[in-house]
Write a structure and sequence with these properties.
heterodimer, A: alpha/beta, 10 helices, disordered C terminus, B: 27% helix
Chain lengths: 312, 317
């Protein structure tokens, strides 16, 4: 459904844009309907840039993004409008997604005026009620309210309900629960699971490994704009091969087991896994690709050049 | 007994009335104890932490006492607290990265701070560089401006600076929340190391992240809507929580290994009450599956077993 092939993004930085920063480098993967892929990376890994390119909020420097066979970068105004009826994004900060001056109904009403102008009042009401129910919101609790009267969880659910009004096929969810409290974040996460069961494809962008593990079918580990490991979530988490993935999983705090006594010392500070030569992705087992960087032990790997997604 | 807090109440003054952010907290922290202070946003954990060191302008102490090593802290008196701050109690604030003066070199700033406490910078320097080395920094940082350091480096500088006078109590507020997992672990372990080396006697670690606390804290105190809910050893709180709120909160955390496809975790329905006019009785009762008539009466934060405290009528059973 959605396919990224060799997607690269270079930002011009410094005075007069003389310097270049590669935010995303040669990223390829596909997402199928009803599949949740988590894109996991630390700050500066380029994970948000990937989401923004899919939503065409920024263009790719190289490579292509295709949705149902059409190149996203070629869309004109009309085609783009159609694209946004299928593909929507929800972002980290629910409070900045709303204009505090207007009632929250406005973001929903805008969907109607932009995409569903011919819908009768009655059909609209039914549709609205159904989308709100799908995200476990009671219409009376949220409609007619201003953003500050609602909780972060409610606002975030409302953003998802807004996407549901369009019967979207694909959702980019960028850190949508990192600002929510623990007791409500799991409900929003479960909502993504419900969407998936309805056949929506989801790119779940997060820095939190345990959330990614909980919800996603496949996992991509991004480091400095490059994919270092990707594949079926149980394989990436159960049998991490790249040293960077291993380091991440080693450092995640668990609730019922203590950190292993690591002989880390001062080396644990600024994690400079040395800038070793970067290698292409190779398949280590079925649906499990790892960057064959220097220092990666690829015992049992079949060194075949692999393009993301083909080996599903 | 290092720290004893008795019935502390701190409200925020607003035009609409008092926001009861911290409404009667009584607990103790022992010598050498690392106590985790956990809860969701708005539960009063930061208010509690701040009130032990420096109140911000809108905060008003409504009652209660704070005793540190047998001396009552004049927490309501900003000037009188100067004598204790930095020497006896110290805080690493939530935005530690922005806590440094941007127009002073790090070394000059530290020297000014020590001066204000009548301590010689030159005499402290050897110890300072030893401690910087301990957190992976060299003396070079002293000649740099904060802008030249990364977020993680600034955080470590603030950490070393706050503990330079070996305070009895250190309060670390969301120290690890803005960090990547890899640095998070190192910073959390630094807190334990500082305790081992007796740079600080006891520590209160404020965070919303229970799994970090499980790694480093001896005990965990859970707050909800301005009230203390439960305190016990880190192991007991996570393995066998007694208060329904703690139980539901822990049940809602996805652990590596739990997957949506296999087991669907549940959140806690509803939201905490507003603290402007909080309801009488147990503040969790609207969301609590075990609530019964008696919950209209406020449950005391009582010792239900040796070393275990909980504020719930049903926690003892």
């Amino acid at each position: 459904m959605l396919e990224l092939a060799g997607v690269t993004k270079v930002f011009k930085t410094g005075m007069f844009g003389k310097e270049e920063t590669t935010a995303v480098s040669d990223v390829s993967f596909t997402v199928q309907p009803g599949e949740v892929i988590s894109l996991i990376g630390e700050s500066g890994s380029g994970k948000t840039t990937v989401g923004r390119m899919i939503l065409r909020l920024t263009g790719a420097t190289a490579g292509s993004i295709t949705f149902d066979g059409s190149d996203v970068s070629r869309f004109g105004r009309r085609a783009l409008r159609g694209y946004y009826a299928d593909v929507q994004g929800v972002f980290q900060d629910p409070f900045s997604s709303y204009n505090p001056v207007y009632k929250v109904d406005r973001v929903l009403g805008m969907i109607r005026s932009s995409y569903l102008p011919d819908l009768s009042q009655e059909d609209w009401r039914t549709k609205l009620r159904k989308s709100l129910e799908a995200v476990s919101l009671v219409p009376a609790d949220v409609l007619g309210k201003y953003p500050h009267q609602l909780s972060g969880g409610q606002l975030q659910r409302l953003m998802i309900a807004r996407a549901l009004l369009l019967d979207i096929k694909f959702l980019v969810a960028d850190e949508i629960i990192s600002m929510l409290d623990a007791s409500t974040r799991i409900d929003v996460l479960n909502l993504l699971g419900d969407l998936k069961e309805r056949g929506v494809g989801i790119l779940f962008i997060t820095h939190d490994l345990s959330l990614g593990n909980y919800i996603s079918d496949r996992t991509i580990i991004l480091r400095r704009g490059r994919i270092v490991e990707m594949g079926a979530t149980p394989k990436v988490f159960g049998n991490p091969v790249h040293p960077y993935t291993q380091m991440l999983l080693f450092a995640v705090p668990h609730l019922h087991s203590k950190w292993a006594e690591g002989a880390e010392g001062a080396a644990g500070w600024e994690h400079e896994v040395s800038e070793s030569a970067a290698g292409p992705l190779v398949e280590v087992e079925r649906d499990h690709l790892v960057a064959s960087d220097e220092g990666t032990s690829l015992a049992g790997a079949q060194p075949q050049q692999a393009q993301g997604g083909e080996n599903r | 007994m290092s720290l004893a807090v008795d019935n502390l109440r701190v409200y925020y003054r607003t035009l609409k009335g008092d926001v009861r952010a911290l409404d009667g907290a009584s607990f103790t922290v022992a010598d050498g104890e690392i106590m985790g202070l956990a809860g969701e946003s708005g539960c009063g954990k930061t208010t509690l932490g701040k009130s032990l060191v420096r109140l911000d302008g809108r905060m008003q102490v409504m009652g209660g006492t704070v005793t540190l090593d047998g001396v009552e802290l004049p927490i309501a008196d900003d000037n009188a607290m100067n004598e204790f701050r930095f020497r006896e109690v110290s805080i690493v604030p939530q935005y530690a990265m922005s806590a440094l003066n941007p127009i002073r070199k790090i070394g000059r700033m530290i020297s000014e701070l020590l001066d204000s406490r009548g301590v010689s910078y030159d005499e402290t320097l050897p110890e300072l560089s030893r401690r910087l080395a301990l957190v992976g920094l060299d003396d070079g940082v002293l000649d740099r401006y904060p802008i030249e350091l990364s977020g993680g480096m600034k955080q470590r500088v603030v950490m070393v600076l706050s503990t330079l006078m070996n305070p009895s109590l250190l309060i670390a507020d969301e120290l690890t929340s803005a960090l990547d997992v890899s640095t998070q672990k190192a910073v959390a372990e630094m807190l334990v190391e500082f305790r081992e080396r007796k740079f600080v006697k006891s520590t209160i670690v404020i965070t919303h992240d229970l799994s970090i606390l499980y790694q480093i804290a001896d005990t965990i105190l859970v707050m909800y809507a301005g009230k203390l809910v439960e305190k016990a050893s880190a192991a007991k709180i996570t393995e066998d929580p007694r208060h329904p709120y703690t139980r539901l909160l822990i049940g809602s955390l996805p652990e590596v290994g739990v997957r949506f496809a296999d087991r669907r975790l549940e959140g806690i329905p509803g939201r905490p009450p507003g603290l402007l006019n909080p309801p009488a009785g147990c503040r969790f009762r609207d969301r609590c599956p075990l609530a019964f008539e008696k919950c209209a009466e406020e449950p005391p934060f009582a010792e239900i077993a040796p070393g275990r405290f909980a504020a719930c009528w049903k926690a003892g059973s």
